[in-house]
Design goal:
Length: 252
């Protein structure tokens, strides 16, 4: 049965009751097309809020209000596209352009506080190739020591057995940071060809079940539990990525 678009948006907005949300979530895990549709509809609300705050802080609000007051005309004049209306639109566009420069460029990059951690990981992941993980794999004798250090840093029990997957070989683990938070990246090579990453960050997020999305052209499955966020990302079939996520979530 086809699901109405308004039902999907209600789910993403948290407006469905618990039973409806659970049924839709379970259906999306078994239906790759539905998962992709939900991912396309999903909005990074934190980023939108931060962008709006940035706009509010630097936009020439007083100038725009002054332009609006001095250019007020009857509706029929405005609808004809008079000069004052064009001036007002130009001022608004200039303000938006300023926000684009300040927020999109700044010092040349988005800061950790201005983008989601999944976006940051996706930008990093697209640079990986099979050679990256073949040439920089961790030595077998160092795996347990490395995993112990990473586990102690983020409070998640990582072991060789926990991370072992049938369709991807664990190659290395490393500690990154996002803002002031630690971010563990565990790198895999899928079928000896495609890099896949399992990432973990203790960010205090509320519990969220498995959800799918796409960033930088790469499919992602993510979830959160006990204040810790998790994600797997890689250019492999959706059902395989979902299987990896389910396995790792169940083990942790």
């Amino acid at each position: 049965m086809k699901i109405k678009p308004e039902t999907l948006t209600a789910y993403l907005d948290g407006e469905l009751d618990e039973q409806q949300a659970r049924e839709l979530r379970e259906r999306s895990l078994a239906d790759a097309q539905l998962a992709a549709t939900l991912a396309a509809l999903q909005i990074d609300r934190d980023r939108m809020k931060q962008d709006y705050m940035a706009l509010e802080s630097i936009a020439p609000v007083d100038d725009l209000r002054s332009a609006l007051a001095t250019s007020a005309k009857p509706a029929n004049d405005i609808n004809t596209g008079g000069g004052n209306r064009k001036l007002l639109m130009a001022a608004a566009c200039a303000a938006c352009l300023a926000v684009g420069v300040m927020v999109g460029s700044g010092s040349g990059n988005w800061t950790g506080a201005e983008k989601s951690w999944r976006e940051a990981v996706a930008e990093y992941q697209v640079l990986y190739s099979a050679e990256t993980l073949k040439w920089n794999a961790i030595a077998p004798a160092e795996v347990e020591t490395t995993l112990k250090q990473l586990s102690d840093r983020i409070g998640v029990p990582l072991t060789r057995q926990v991370l072992k997957l049938p369709i991807a070989d664990f190659r290395r683990g490393q500690m990154l940071t996002f803002g002031s938070r630690p971010l563990v990246q565990l790198a895999y090579l899928h079928d000896g060809v495609t890099p896949v990453a399992f990432c973990i960050t203790p960010d205090g997020a509320p519990d969220v079940g498995l959800a799918a999305e796409t960033r930088e052209g790469l499919p992602i499955v993510h979830w959160a539990r006990d204040g810790i966020s998790y994600m797997v990302i890689g250019d492999i079939p959706n059902e395989q990525l979902l299987g990896m996520a389910q396995t790792l979530r169940d083990r942790l």
